[in-house]
């Protein structure tokens, strides 16, 4: 028994609506400030992952805990470019000695610069209310 034509039309209509709805949701970047890493920073991120920086360092609190969180290392802690670039190859204390060339150091630095621009960690404006919900004041401010 074949279903009547009107059902076929209804199913196609629902499929079209579902696809349009998904398209709109997945291409709308306004909700999270449209953070996009530049090509250079993406190279830096690759170096970051390939060299396991995240096994000792955190970004937004995620990662290993042997080294400090580096989310805002660029601005928050007032490190300049020279300091950070020399840090990558320094081998100070528990930080292993790497052998990055100048381009790679620039890329890693660019990654840290752009990560820093995405927001602040820890969010000092966040408050935990009595009922357990986290209230964030000026939530969109950090993405401007
Ligand atoms: C084995 C653990 C480990 C790995 C892997 C590691 N680090 Fe570190 N890193 C540390 C430690 C520990 C410190 C703090 C050193 C100190 O106290 O002076 C540090 C410090 C730093 C600092 C300076 C932070 C500051 O505020 O002074 C930067 C920048 C940094 N690391 C970047 C990197 C990058 C980029 C990578 C990957 C290429 C990396 N680290 C891999 C352990 C690590």
Would you kindly provide a brief summary of this structure?
The chain has 144 residues and is mainly alpha-helical. It has a domain at 39-116: Cytochrome Bc1 Complex, Chain D, domain 2 (Orthogonal Bundle).
Describe this structure in words.
By secondary structure, the protein is mostly helical. The chain has a domain at 39-116: Orthogonal Bundle (Cytochrome Bc1 Complex, Chain D, domain 2), CATH 1.10.760.10. Helices cover 40% and strands 7% of the residues. The chain has four helices and four strands; from the N terminus they run ααββααββ. The strands form two sheets. It has a two-stranded antiparallel sheet. A two-stranded antiparallel sheet has the order 3-4. α3 crosses α4 (102-116). The protein starts with a helix and ends in an 8-residue tail after the last strand. The mean pLDDT is 87. Bound molecules: heme C.
